[in-house]
Amino acid sequence: MAQGAVRNALDQAGISIGELGAETVLLHIQNGITHLTPPASIVLAGSLGLKRVRCLSIDGVCAEPINALEIAALMFNAGLCSRAIISASVDFTALIDPADNQTSGLFGCGAGALIAEPAKANSPYGLHGLTWETHSEHWKLGVSPMLSSRAEKNGVSVTFGHYQMKGQELARVALRVLNGVLGRTLDEATCSINDCDLVVSHQPNVKMLDIGLPRLGIPLDKVPRPGAWMGNLGPASLLVGLSTAKESGLIADGKKVLLLSFGLGFSAGAAVIQF
């Protein structure tokens, strides 16, 4: 899935795999194990034939695309790279207990990717503000623990528990933390919600968005909700949301977009970008 998402993003940007080298950084977020080693970003780069692209894997669940965006921005500002591929992939299905009413039916599998490059000097386009926070005291609100590992003749057998979530508590924490994150991001961008043409949010579930976003002062008519048919795609949710919004014609030159992501940890982030 991640390979397809990165290829599609490169095609849309008019960039061929063969022209990518050390000037490009791949920041990949993955939830779902394909290899214990090497890191997921290197496996992805090798599978795509990205021979000299520098790779960084990010361990994350839902909020981390904002973290990756900040890493890319910092590297741009320091002159350390001229392009970033931010990608995320997830497959929650094996971790979900079909008998658990808290989680069954909420999650899906998918992947998304975007290509970021630094804005030209004095350009109105680009990143206008970004904030992210982690509140690790809430880490137990959603867990999939390793239960056991056992050496066998041909390898190691590892057992993980089903994902368990305290949904109502997570929602309360999300609203409290997001209120501050959102305010600081808009202050840095010197704009208001009304100045944003679109809000692309992580999609935990439609009910939470319908109840929670108005409490943050975000009009629902600014927020596409593809989670209604895709489910919660974890770290891929925000990137897939950007892609579907672009395909629907909601993102065009000059549009100011607020990105909002939040998830287990508890981590939350927001960014304002003018396209």
UniProtKB/TrEMBL annotation:
The keyword Signal is annotated on this UniProt entry: no
Record GO biological process: fatty acid biosynthetic process; secondary metabolite biosynthetic process
Superkingdom field: Bacteria
Pfam families cross-referenced by the UniProt entry: ACP_syn_III, ACP_syn_III_C
Keywords noted in UniProt: Acyltransferase, Transferase
Gene Ontology molecular-function annotations: 3-oxoacyl-[acyl-carrier-protein] synthase activity
Domain Beta-ketoacyl-[acyl-carrier-protein] synthase III C-terminal: 186-274
Signal sequence range: none
Domain Beta-ketoacyl-[acyl-carrier-protein] synthase III N-terminal: 59-121
Name of the molecule in the record: 3-oxoacyl-[acyl-carrier-protein] synthase 3
Lineage: Bacteria, Pseudomonadati, Verrucomicrobiota, Verrucomicrobiia, Verrucomicrobiales
